[in-house]
């Protein structure tokens, strides 16, 4: 299921990974180990991009705990370049235009 999700998501948003890199101080932490395959943290961001905001739903989809999702969210907020804006809103705007 996750491979299919990765494939479809990256088909819709081919520049997603590069755009995420541009929002973070340490972009390597969120980078996938394999081409065309998202890391779990990138899947979290992909779900945010698709408009899923409920942490419990995200945890269920990713087969993770709520604690893990909260950790991803904290890392994202702490690692952002632009501290004045909401990073999740920036993620939601990726590939819009």
What tags apply to this protein structure?
single chain, 0% strand, globular
3D structure, described in words:
The relative contact order is 0.18. The protein has helices at residues 2-12, 16-21, 40-49, 55-62, 66-79, 87-92. The mean pLDDT is 87. Helix 4 (55-62) crosses helix 5. The protein contains six helices and no strands.
Total beta strands? 0
Overall average pLDDT: 87
Q: What letter string, H or E per element, gives the SSE order?
A: HHHHHH
Largest sheet: none
Number of helices: 6
First and last CA, distance: 29 Å
Share of residues in helices: 55-70%
Name the poorly predicted regions: none
List the helices and strands and how they pair.
Elements: H1 2-12, H2 16-21, H3 40-49, H4 55-62, H5 66-79, H6 87-92
In a nutshell, what does this entry contain?
The protein has 97 residues and is mainly alpha-helical.
